[in-house]
Amino acid sequence: MKVKVRHIVLNLLWVSVFSPIFIYTYMVGTFFDPSFSRLDFLDDVAAFTLSGDTSHLHVVPLETSTALKKPVGVVYSDHSANSFPSEVTEHKSTRVLSAASEERQPLLNNPITQAISLEEQHTLPPGKIEQKEQSVNKSYEMTEAADVQVHRIKDLLIRAKVYISLPAIKSNSRLTRELRLQIKELSRAIGDAAKDTDLPKSAFEKLKAMEQSLEKGKQIQDNCGASIKRLRAMLHSTEDQLRVHKKKTTFLAQLTAKTLPKGLHCLPLRLTTEYYTLDSSQQNFLDEDKLEDPRLYHYALFSDNILAAAVVVNSTISHVKHPSKHVFHIVTDRLNYAAMRMWFLCNSPGKVTIQVQNIEEFTWLNSSYSPVLKQLGSPSIRDYYFRAHRSNSVSNLKYQNPKYLSILNHLRFYLPEIFPKLNKVLFLDDDVVVQKDLSDLWSLDLKANVNGAVETCGESFHRFDRYLNFSHPLISKNFDPHACGWAYGMNIFDLAEWRRQNITEVYHRWQKLNHGRQLWKLGTLPPGLITFWKRIHPLNRSWHVLGLGYNPNVNQREIERAAVIHYNGNLKPWLEIGIPKYRNYWAKYVDYDSVYLRDCNINP
């Protein structure tokens, strides 16, 4: 009987005392296990979602939060995911994943953290892990990623933005201002760079300055690691997906910008047909004696877009006080010459004098005289813009825009040759709208400068180092990388001063030096910055407001006050992709009642 009672007591003691102790000990051991905490953290990150419905922000459906990729390395930036005391004595192998520590900061995207998986670290002995890390590290150093510095800068920007949102940093106004300034400068330096080679030299100096500022913030705020880890995990996990969406958007925008709408293709065909039905006496404009009168107001407009040219002329003459004193010189190509003449013959702009010229008639403009014409016609240039293995690269779509191979785009460098008897000419792009009388520009004193233009030193624009290759000694020795750029589109040129300073020869000399495209890549603004270096007279910004062809946030008050608004960018107002809220500024100068527009189905 006593034996049975003893067994019963022992069983009860086991159930009520020893079993709970055993179960509790097992749970605590599992909870403090490093591998468990890491896997739990990764699951937490993968399940992280933003509050609210963000589907309306994306054209292409995004992956669900459960499909997010596991962040590579940067999740464990400063310490492990958990903050328990056992982390201090964690196995040596866990240090392999610490990709953002002080000593390993430059290797945020080091493939070591990809090559040595979490499972391998818990199955291999410590010695093997170190050997594997060393071998992978050597191969990484031999094939260093081309974008490691770009990713490093992006990571620093993320950290800085998080730092300035923390209460301890906010209370330090001096450090907050310093971080905001560093963010602005570093963001401007990185721009759209995708590779380290795209970064300007100044980016590395700004990178070091940012690291010093972050170090100050780290001393103030030591417990912000968890917030940074979580934000890095979220941002880096979606980076690839965002890059794909950006490439798709860029491709479609570039494709649409280069595509001529059906109506604008129909219009010149219709006008050309009508032009050749006219008698020779009906094909001439009136007041040809005014074309070379230097006392009048002369405008230069080079375009192959009939509707755009019509808007420039209509918007200009609607604001002038004395239309009979204004002369428009329009130069177009051979294909659109008859159509352009027919349009202005049928839509005579009152007392304003119109001249339409064919660029083919400029016999002096040939490859023996113009270096750029020789270069544009060379097989190497055409291969550079259009060769097959570049055609799939979204970043190079801009190189394939036909305007870069059009001599019309470069005709602005030959104004004295086109207008030999004029002293001043106002140059207008065909994507501008004039909103005020521009007559005062002719009486403006340019102070011995050649080009009166609006400078573009604002945050949305770039300085010289964004257009020219300052790694080349010819550029670095002659120009200031921080000098203000300026805008083409509305420029008053002093042709007398141009001739005196022999500006055309300056342009030719630099074009010859850039034969291998080592000084700048493409376009007319880079050679313009060089040619008119220290020959620019800055105009008040209200004369010329830019950005309506790409920026939906141009200040409304600036638009209303501007003398000229410029649709520079891909979102032209005559395209369906044009920004809707800006389209009416342009459309109100189009005569949609014209029979030719109705025949070609061009509607508001």
TrEMBL record:
Keywords: Cell wall biogenesis/degradation, Glycosyltransferase, Golgi apparatus, Membrane, Transferase, Transmembrane, Transmembrane helix. It is found in: Golgi apparatus membrane. The keyword Cell wall biogenesis/degradation applies. The keyword Transferase applies. Its EC number is 2.4.1.-. Pfam families: GAUT_1 (PF25557), Glyco_transf_8 (PF01501). CDD domains: GT8_like_1. It is a single-pass type II membrane protein. One of its GO terms (biological process) is cell wall organization. PANTHER family: GALACTURONOSYLTRANSFERASE 4-RELATED. This is Hexosyltransferase. It comes from Gossypium darwinii (Darwin's cotton). The lineage of its organism: Eukaryota, Viridiplantae, Streptophyta, Embryophyta, Tracheophyta.
